[in-house]
UniProtKB/TrEMBL annotation, chain A:
This is Oligopeptide transport system substrate-binding protein. PANTHER family: DIPEPTIDE-BINDING PROTEIN DPPE, PERIPLASMIC BINDING COMPONENT OF ABC TRANSPORTER. It comes from Paenibacillus taihuensis. Residues 1-20 form the signal peptide. The lineage of its organism: Bacteria, Bacillati, Bacillota, Bacilli, Bacillales. Pfam families: SBP_bac_5 (PF00496). The keyword Protein transport applies.
From TrEMBL, chain B:
It holds the Pfam family OppC_N. This is Oligopeptide transport system permease protein. Keywords: Cell membrane, Membrane, Transmembrane, Transmembrane helix, Transport. Residues 113-302 form the ABC transmembrane type-1 domain. Belongs to the binding-protein-dependent transport system permease family. It is found in: Cell membrane. It is a multi-pass membrane protein. Gene3D superfamilies: MetI-like (1.10.3720.10). It comes from the Bacteria. GO terms for biological process: transmembrane transport. The chain crosses the membrane at residues 52-74, 115-140, 152-170, 176-195, 234-259, 279-305. InterPro entries: BP-dependent_transpt_permease, MetI-like, MetI-like_sf, OppC_N.
TrEMBL record, chain C:
InterPro entries: BPD_transp_1_N, MetI-like, MetI-like_sf. GO terms for cellular component: plasma membrane. The chain crosses the membrane at residues 9-27, 100-121, 130-152, 172-191, 230-252, 272-298. GO terms for biological process: transmembrane transport. Its main location: membrane. It comes from Paenibacillus taihuensis. Pfam families: BPD_transp_1, BPD_transp_1_N. Residues 94-295 form the ABC transmembrane type-1 domain. It is a multi-pass membrane protein. This is Oligopeptide transport system permease protein.
Amino acid sequence: MKKKLLVLVSLILVFTGVLSACGKSGSGSDQTFRMNLTTEPPSLDVAQAQDQTSFTVLSGLFEGLTRMDKDGNIIPGVAEKWDVADGGKKYTFHLRSDAKWSNGDPVTAHDFEYSWKRTLDPKLNPPAPYAYQLYYIKNAQNYNIEADNPNHISDPAQVGVKAIDDATLEVNLENPTPYFLNITAFFTSYPVHKSAQTNANWAAEAKDYISNGPFKLSTWKHGDSMELVQNENYWDKKDIHLTSVKFSMVKDANTELSMYKTGKLDWAGKPTGDIPTEQLAKFREEKNPELTIKPIASTYYYNFNNEKKPFNNVKVRKALSMAINRQDIVDKVTKAGQTPAYGFVSGGIHGVSGEYRSEVKDDYFKEDVAEAKKLLAEGLQEEGMTSMPEFTLTFNEGLHKEVAEAIANMWKENLGITAKTEVQEWKIFLKNRQSLNYDVARAGWGADYNDPMTFIDMFTTGGGNNDIGFKNADYDALVKEAYATSDQQKRVDAMAKAEKILIGDNQAIMPIYYYTSAQLVKPYVKNYVVDFGGNIDYTRISIEK
Amino acid sequence: MSTQLKDIQHSEANTQALFEKLPQRHKEAEIITAESRSTFQESWARLRKNKYAMTGMYVLIIMIILAIVCPMLSPYNTYTNDLDNTYAAPSAKHWFGTDNLGRDMFTRSWRGVQISLIVGFTAALIDLLIGVAYGGIMGFAGKRLGNAMNKFAEVLYAIPYMLVVILLGVVMGSGLFTIILALSITGWITMSWIVRGQILQLKNQEYVLAAQSMGASGGRILFRHLIPNTLGPIIVTVTLSVPSAIFTEAFLSFLGLGVQSPDASLGSLISSAMSSWTLYPWVMAIPASLLCITMIAFNIFGDGLQDAFDPKMKK
Amino acid sequence: MARYLGGKFVNIIVSLLILATATFFLMKAVPGDPFTQEKAIPPEIKAQIMAHYGLDKPVWHQYLIYMKNLFQFDLGESMKSSNRTVTSIIADSFGTSFKVGIIAIIVSVIIGVYLGMMAALRHKKFIDNFFMFIAVLGISIPSFVVGAMVQYFFGVKFQIFTVAGLEGPLDYVLPVVALSTLPIAFIARLTRSTMLEVLTSDYIRTAKAKGLTPHAILWQHGLRNGILPVVTYLGPMTANVITGSVVVEQIFGLPGLGAYFVESITNRDYTLIMGITIFYAVILMAARFVTDVLYIIIDPRIKISGGVVKK
């Protein structure tokens, strides 16, 4: 019997050996780029997409009126050139004649008008969640919001976007918007082919999918993988080297890394994947040349509940913020080369002529345990308290847990106060944070567009994302001042003053670090771009083995 | 039937004159309970002869003692960070090394055993109490009530377990209490079915009829006669439900729904080691081995019990 | 027989209705909604989207609408993956879970029964002890540990198999190993203990007396009786393996239903949660139903009369 078993086992081994040997030789086609999306993109409909995964796929499939080059400058996309008039409130785009859809139809100004109005249509099935990205356009908001809106405009013709002819698109804005050309490069502004009128589910499967970018959707195995192949009708085909882009949807970061190590992926990590912290630290230690780490425009911070005692007291907030060691957190806990944050606006954001963060230093406060102790005692006294009550630090699943535990430990050691750490399920956490049902809560904010305003206007009184209960009339006035002008120097000055009120004077939030984006890239992958926000542009990649 | 009954009544009337009726005392309704204890002793004797089972039992006892003693005697606690000493390899200072925040793995691992055992035992105890009571009533009650109760258990059993656990975790926040509750919500059903099956089988046996005819109440028959006689399968089921609860907790930890750090269970220690064990093997190897030892001990011991309680199997 | 099975079928439908109701209200009791997100959508837009999905109506009204659609076999549209119906999501992803699951079950039964039989035949000999030690080990290691280990050693270290995905037939090996470790161990133990019982029974003794070889006795007489508990176990196991493979699917990056289920709950994708729950329950109940039928076919002692199983 033992003999039989032995024979069986050895047979299986030989068999698998032979088969796996066959499997290996077949892989490795030339101009193919493979990366992991982690999850299925929730939607590839331009109007429905609102997340980074969908965006990553869409950015290869579509091209807007403008696009960004590798340094983040706006360059022509479908629009060859444009004129700005009326104090920055009127844009006229002149489209190139050789822009084509993947089915060969020409891309016209009507396609843009159709797409934008479709996104803004309150009757769209379902209504577009990111429609507000187009609210810069005149009357867009009042057309989009139908329910309980006395100013609702039901006539789409009044929305400020109009195709004059096939090659000319005229756009009227509500306010002068210096970064509008960034918006036209953004995925909500991509065109949609008119066939969507008759086929509402055009974006559900690969077979019906029509796009105008460097690639077209060739296969989509839901939840498993996706392949884009070169669009032979793309006007700038000569700059596109990849013949195909393969996306996998592997959820586990360890598995993603294993796939990278075994040559199944050319890219691992951000923006749509992840490298496990310890492994990343190891790669950094080894100075692995395949690892790249780049600061991105996102800030990691803690929310103080500014309405709740004792966090309503600025001295208590300052004490908590000054009593931690940010350098230790980025070096020993998060380990991905992040930089300690003492301000709110992250690096990588344009200022007047250079980077905002180098023009306006984030030296609003310093870490100082002795000073923190003093401030805490004073603050508690002002609130009529003898000691700091035990409070809860809430966060969601992930590395946030380690960060929170490290910070709670620092507070305990440096101030002798006890913070209970509590992980909450993502949506419950958000719900609690948005309804100010917390003491101190983890938060993070990434830039939507390359301007300090994407951070600053968050904390205006009653703002949709103001989840700290911060109310400050001076702050609101400064934000308004920046909105009203298109003079960049004045805007930056106003925003810098606002940031000082937020962090320096009030310590309304506790900045911890500015994010980085870390990825492993095979050495033969050339010409990829990771932009200021950490998004990848893979369209111009070439594989040079 | 009716004529028979009349006969009895008739003869009763006749004998009344000859015999004096004793006042009914519940406790002494019948005193033949010694028999069940002796089967118990017999089983114990059988168990003691089984060297595997005894080894399992001793290992378990040692694990329980260590789980209580080690975290108390250790100079470290489970939560204090030492950021300059992260992922230190096992040494004289830290016997099991340290983890990603420099916390002592020796303390954390034994705390993990402790929590895992608490989860296992509590869940098993709740299964036992609810399962035996429910199963007992289900088996002993009338056909209609019994079937209705069985239906209820079946529906509950059909709810995908994951849904219950995730929903509970989401609503109540993850933690020890949630996990035990989640394990108990459906855990008792198997036990109740086993008890019911046993009771349905035993219900019609002679000694139950005897007890009935001696005037014992339904509840008394259930708890004095039926349940003690189903004790074997109950004990075996409980013993095996402890490791299954420990296992389920580990599985929940993998999905991020288990015991939350800075506290630790074996499952949460293992799952947090999933991304770093290839670099720092001890963070995975130690809790995984402790889990494995505990599970093996429980399973061997459970097997031994099963053999001991099932005379058919004695060989 | 037909009446018995008919009765079972009615039971299944009633259970499903109760289950759907319970799940619906349980799900609605959880805080958050499909459109709660970090960068909050302006409340006016959110209100329009909620209205589109009927989420602005009272919960009981939503329930009635859902049940009405359910009776027309309409599971609705996913609220997270817009443009996709729940039915198509389940259809796409269940195939993978099913394929891997069925292979794992077949492998488990074959290897498990074989090991159990061999152990029983060589009771108290080396093979018995060895196999049973392996089996105890098998039920003592969590599947995610097994999964991670085999993936690392056979996928990354020795690179015999791919680490993730299901492109070729060989890609099934590692997930199936991770998935079937526990059932193999369980079935081996089950088979061994039943076989030991069977081997001491009268009819086997008779067969021995007639001079049949131990192997002939085992395969001809023993197996039929010895396999009964395995069949009983098969029902819940099938359901568990097919529905409970979340962990293995995650480790090996398989596009199965398990991952969708967990995600649907964290996304509060109401229609998808309902759809998958009902689907899982149907699978679970169907597995049990098939087990009952199999049991009747295999066990000659069971006779059915008047809708009740008599043993």
